[in-house]
Amino acid sequence: MMSVTCSNLEFGRTRLEFAACGCSSNVSTNRVTAKNYGKGLLSNVNRRGRLWCCRGDAGRCRVFSTMTPEAFLNGVVAGPPPVLDLAEEKKGLPSMSDMFDVVSEDLLTLNKNLQSIVGSENPVLMSAAEQIFEAGGKRMRPALVFLVSRATAEIAGLKDLTKEHRRLAEIIEMIHTASLIHDDVIDESDMRRGKETVHQLYGTRVAVLAGDFMFAQSSWYLANLENLEVIKLISQVIKDFASGEIKQASSLFDCDVHLDEYLIKSYYKTASLIAASTKGSSIFSGVDNAISEKMYQYGKNLGLSFQVVDDVLDFTQSAEQLGKPAGSDLAKGNLTAPVIFALEKETKLRDIIDSEFCEMGSLEEAIEIVKNSGGIDRARELAREMANLAVENLHCLPPSPFRVSLEQLVNYNLERIK
């Protein structure tokens, strides 16, 4: 059995040993090691699970932390984490476009380059890729690259961004776009940002190939950066995407899913790319490893907080606001933080989920149970804890408009669930 040789994701005293930092490692296909520093404890429990594609039974791995969920989430050895008043200025909170105004010129340049960087070797694949670029989006991930790049460049004494900084932002957006194309296929989504999805327009086969094409093209540009540390870091993200989908598919309708498993899946699916974006930016600025690691932790905690907020909104916003039916994750059997917390108190919810909502009105009943059980409030607190950690990670940066925007982005995310 192969095991991981290194790690960069820690919660409290428990190190979850999967390759998050981009360094060379070998991971077995059915084991993730949770090691307690003092005891060297290894937990690996195989149990029944449902595969997404066939609802059959298959062995699957479970990941257990040796710490309590609170310690796991807080990322501290002892004592409560410092609580920052992130919402004290609820009124007048800037929009995301306002926060990104300090890098607006960088984003304009990125938008001009995105379609040309895709290439024109295959017109069909290029057209499919352009479909999602043209749909717009907030460009949050490349904006993070530019914000962290400029904040850390000041530390290193750089007067402007390097070509590597700019190419990294383009690569990150290409990888994100590729993942969206594949996600829409897996989720059978017909619309994204008010436009028809690639697979809806061109068919599933072309959509899958378009996503593969985008991943391959971004990998080629990544290799040409000729920075082995960043190449390993970003390459790991593509693997994490697949790992996250497999973890999610293997635990549908599983009422025994643990909070730490949910967080690991959320890291793979959402936070991994954001963490790699922020760390890679600082590496190209030439700052020391301690600051690069803080930027990685900022991206990781911000990404986890964003995912938890999205999962809360799945229960609290209307179908019109969401652009999809409320509770759609639960309907598909994807149990998120509000549901996991609710299951700790409501045994009836377990029975309903185990039935896979076979009775009329059972989904609506399950949603009401989640809302009334305190699960949503506990999920809000979880998002806030992650946000607190993200803000702390920024303390290594000198005061600047770029650091302010990075802090405001944390506030903006929490404001969505106020």
Provide a descriptive summary of the structure in words.
This protein is mainly α and 418 residues long. The protein folds into two domains: 65 residues, no CATH class; 320 residues, Farnesyl Diphosphate Synthase (Orthogonal Bundle), CATH 1.10.600.10. It is built from 18 helices and seven strands. A hairpin with a 6-residue loop joins β4 and β5. The longest helix has 28 residues. The protein is globular. The N terminus is likely disordered.
Helix- and strand-based class? Answer: mainly alpha
What is the CA-CA span between the terminal residues? 46 Å
What is the spatial order of strands in the main beta sheet? 1-2-3
What is the fold named in CATH at topology level of the largest domain?
A: Farnesyl Diphosphate Synthase
Arithmetic mean of pLDDT: 79
Largest sheet geometry: 3 strands, antiparallel
Give the quaternary arrangement of the chains. Answer: single chain
Under the CATH scheme, the architecture of the largest domain is Orthogonal Bundle
Percent helix among the residues?
Answer: 55-70%
What's the CATH class of the largest domain, please? Mainly Alpha
Tally of discrete structural domains: 2
Shape: globular
Protein name: Sporulation-specific protein 2
EC number: 2.5.1.75
Cofactor: Mg(2+)
InterPro entries: Isoprenoid_synthase_dom_sf, Polyprenyl_synt, Polyprenyl_synt_CS
